[in-house]
Amino acid sequence: MVLDSALIALVGGILCLDRVILQTMISRPVVAAPLVGLILGDLKTGLFVGAIYELLWLDKFPMGNYVPPNDSLAAVVNTAAIPLAAGTSPAPATSLIALSFLLFLPLGYVTRWMETTIVRSNDRLCEAALSKAEAGDASGVEKIHLRALFKYTAAYPLFIFGAVTAGVPILAGLYAALDPPWIRCLDKVYFALPLVACSVLLYTLRVPKALFLFSLVFFAALFIIGVLHG
């Protein structure tokens, strides 16, 4: 698992750097998560996880001094943890996927704290770069710029590696300890996730009465799923 975690940390770190360097959109969850899933031999899970994260935080983007949750890092960790926790199973159980969301979704806010810390640190570097520029020291400006980028280059892979290495045993242990009623409950949560994500999308697009309509659909779907699986 350590080698898999290191590989995902390297690939995921490079993909997530797109958020601050090139910004070609390869860091978006809907792209990054399927790529990670493909590397681990579970493209289907990567597509599902990427789509959910993309829709849940579609309206969270940097504006002014606002630092949004890093949905890219969270999606990469979540996608990697599922097949690694499932082990040799041909396909992860839907209940395991649902549990992984409950466990790893909050990582988006942990990464926001991490990125806020890096941004504040780079603010100090910005002042130093201005001083170098006023002195005509182009080489000094370049070095400071590279120092600022290095913080992200180091932080992203280290975060992914640590989160996957620690998160996979926790996810597998929690899932193994669940009783059958909890497993059935998580199965229902899995089917509810797309509804929740789509409701967030409609709210973001400001569709009239979107929350009311999707609340009805959500609870109706839960009732139908409960009847079918009861």
Question: What does the model show?
Answer:
With 230 residues, this protein is an all-alpha fold. It folds into two domains: 2-123 and 155-178, no CATH class; 180-230. It is 79% helix and 0% strand. The chain contains nine helices and no strands. Helix 2 (29-39) packs antiparallel against helix 3, helix 2 (29-39) runs parallel beside helix 4 and helix 3 runs antiparallel to helix 4 (71-86). The radius of gyration is 20 Å and the shape is globular.
Task: List how many beta strands DSSP finds.
Answer: 0
Please tell me the total number of domains. Answer: 2
Q: Please report the number of helical segments.
A: 9
Mean pLDDT: 81
Helix content: over 70%
Short description:
79% of the residues lie in helices and 0% in strands.
Characteristic terms for this protein:
single chain; 230 residues; mainly alpha; 9 helices; 79% helix; 0% strand
Spell out the blueprint of helices and strands.
Elements: H1 2-17, H2 29-39, H3 43-56, H4 71-86, H5 94-104, H6 107-134, H7 138-177, H8 180-204, H9 210-229
Helix pairs in contact: 1-4, 1-7, 2-3, 2-4, 3-4, 3-8, 4-5, 4-7, 5-7, 5-8, 6-7, 8-9
